[in-house]
Amino acid sequence: MRPSGRDLDELRMVSIETGVTKHAEGSCMIRMGDTHVLCTATLEDRVPPFIKGSGLGWVTAEYGMLPRSTSSRMRREASAGKQGGRTVEIQRLIGRSLRAGVDRVALGERQITIDCDVIQADGGTRCASVTGGWVALRLAVNQLLKSGEVVTDPLIDPVAAVSCGIYAGQPVLDLDYPEDSSAGVDGNFIMTGSGQLIEVQMSAEGSTFSKTQMDQLMELAEKGVSELVSAQKAATSA
Question: Does pTM top 0.90 for this prediction?
Answer without folding.
Answer: yes
